[in-house]
Amino acid sequence: MLRIMPVGDSMTIGSAGEHTWRYWMWRHLHATHDGPFALVGPREALHDKVTDAPTSYAYADPDFPRGHLAGWGEGWLHMAPLIGGAVRETGADVLLVSLGLIDLGFYTNAEQTAQNVRAFVAGAREANPLIRVVLLPVIPNIRARTDAGFATQVGIFNDLLAKTVADLDGARSPLLLASLPPSYDIHTDTYDGTHPNESGEHKIAAAFADAMYQAWDVAGPYPAECD
After folding, report:
1. What is the pLDDT of residues 151-182, one digit of tens each?
2. What angle do CA 43, 46, 50 make, to 5 degrees?
3. What is the CATH topology of the domain spanning 2-216?
4. How far, in Å, CA of 206 to CA of 140, rounded?
């Protein structure tokens, strides 16, 4: 059984009524993976924008297995202390991680955020020395278009993330840097400049799926018409 844990912020947890990229990944794995798998995580809820809390279970598809470790307004700073316990609790084999925008926007600069990436990986490996991790750089967002200082920090962090992956990658516990979706457009792939609509969800799922397929031969390539 391949146990995959999605880890992220508001773009991963999603909000009431959404599919989320986690759903499209699940559908893709069902179509292409030739062995048993599960999406796992200590949390299951969506974010409820009315109560501003992770209290909704109104998924667009009620049959979707909802495990994750994601939270609205949470970043590397928040997840680094939690990841070890989450991996131990769920037996996760693979982590699909999309974090960084929240850190850079509210909590830490690029260098501090990169240090939290290292703490996150160390915590995951302490819980499972064979853990595999796919990390997505900070994707295009409206703040990076309107705030030059923030855009600079995003660029620095994405460079540091690539270096961190290269430094920490290992044969027993490989790390992958997923490619930024090449056609991602905040005007057509988000509903507010940051959070993905269905098109954006597909493109994020494709970034993770293609990284796993190309490096580890897990499942298959994401359908071109969807990414």
Report:
1. 999 999 999 999 999 999 999 999 999 999 98
2. 135
3. Rossmann fold (3.40.50)
4. 16
